[in-house]
Amino acid sequence: MEIGSGLTIGLILGTVIGVAAMLIWVERRLLGLWQERLGPNRVGPLGLFQVVADMIKIFTKEDWTPPFADKFSFVLAPAIIMTVVLLSFAVIPFAPNIGIVDSNIGILFVLAMASIGAYSVMLGGLSSDNKYALLGSLRAAAQMVSYEVFMGISLLGVVALSGSFDLREIVHAQEDMWFVVPQFIGFVIFLIAGVAESHRLPFDIPEAEQEICAGYHTEYSGMKFGMFFVGEYLGLVLVSSLITVLFFGGWMGPAFLPPVVWFALKSGVFICFFILLRAAIPRPRYDQLMSYGWLFLLPLSLLNLLVTGALILMN
Amino acid sequence: MFKLIQDTLISQVVTLWNVFRHLFVKADTVEYPDQQPYMFPRWRGRIILSRDPDGEERCVACNLCAVACPVDCIALQKAETDDGRWYPEFFRINFSRCIMCGFCEEACPTHAIQLTPDFEMAEYKRQDMVWEKEDLLISGTGKYHDYNFYRVAGLAIAGKDKGEALNEDKPVDVRSLLP
Questions:
Q1: Hey, are the CB atoms on A36 and B19 less than 8 Å from each other?
Q2: Domain of B84, in residue numbers
Q3: What is the CATH number for B131?
Q4: Chain B touched by A285 (CB under 8 Å)
Q5: Considering the domain boundaries, does residue B58 fall inside one?
Q6: Residue spans of chain A under pLDDT 70
Q7: Is A34 on the interface with B (CB under 8 A)?
Q8: Is A8 or B70 the better-scoring residue by pLDDT?
Q9: Do B19 and A280 touch (CB under 8 A)?
Q10: What residue spans define the domains of chain A?
């Protein structure tokens, strides 16, 4: 395989979307295990075809656009989130010979796409013309301004250590030691920001099913809802692969398994960890998230960057 | 500062660990259609009408069950055979109303109406929830195997006069009591 060839692009696209769809099943089974239930186990072996059933259901559902909604942005919003999350995968190096683009601004590109993704949530809520949806997008905006800042800064330690924004270069820079060791604080902060970025519990404040219905996608149905849904899972996969690439040495591992398998295993662990987070941690209020972000995590990430820079200069 | 770390980090990690430990706990789920639960013999489920050991209907159409029923789901009509036995001409239970309270079973003087551990009574049509006597009658004696109302009751029927029932004294001839 070759970086950027049509075959690679197709395979990555298919795998990523397939994995995101399978996560529906994985998440429900894992949540079941952790809540002493079984989860879906009826459709096919181990309930694996639950995904197919869900897909058939969501494709054949009535795709209803409310008459009071702003049609253009209502349709645009779910498309944005799918597009930007899929675009972010373009710069992820899955293995030495698997990847789509080797961009020398990889991290910046991912952060930019994440910021555009916030528009999707805000537009979706605004254009729905629904109180719950508006509250959801309001919360999304509040959440975005609080986590995006320290998300970027927490990565700068990695950038300073490896001296590159290129994700492939960053993986190569971890040949001696995974960045999780020197950048542990950065890792924890990025983990927290990643949860907020993918709008998952405990930071699914814009959705908050128990408080505001479904938040920004209250009015969405059919495949438009499905795109938000799959977009969320894609975001989960993206954040997990980013953590793997930035802090856990990407595809590197003992040689008895091919590099791409190591990458998948490491990402899988983080996906499971995110699901565990959902099973265990309650949701904070959004003012709590904001004050936590601005007053604790932002200073901490700045301190982390400062100490990292000082250590690099000393050597 | 310590309290902040306690609240935001340590307590969350402890929670994560506690939830993770549930991975090794057996699930509580009973996979119902594949795995039938144990139903206790005195469970109050589907209602049946039992027969006495001779194979005759136990129900004597006394209407006590219909009266006791708090939701009025039992309807029946009394009829009489040539030998003097009472029996229900029709006996109808509307299971879409029945709340399985068991009052009918408590009220029944002849152990005819009984509740069983069967609870799988879902139907697609509402009318199918109405059970007639033919549907309710079973061929056995239910929970009470030896009881036969006409054998112990003082009521006279063909072939059994007053005083001939089990543990029954002969009727007193009132004239013999005269001084």
A1: no
A2: 47-149
A3: 3.30.70.3270
A4: no
A5: yes
A6: 1-2, 4
A7: yes
A8: B70
A9: yes
A10: 64-314
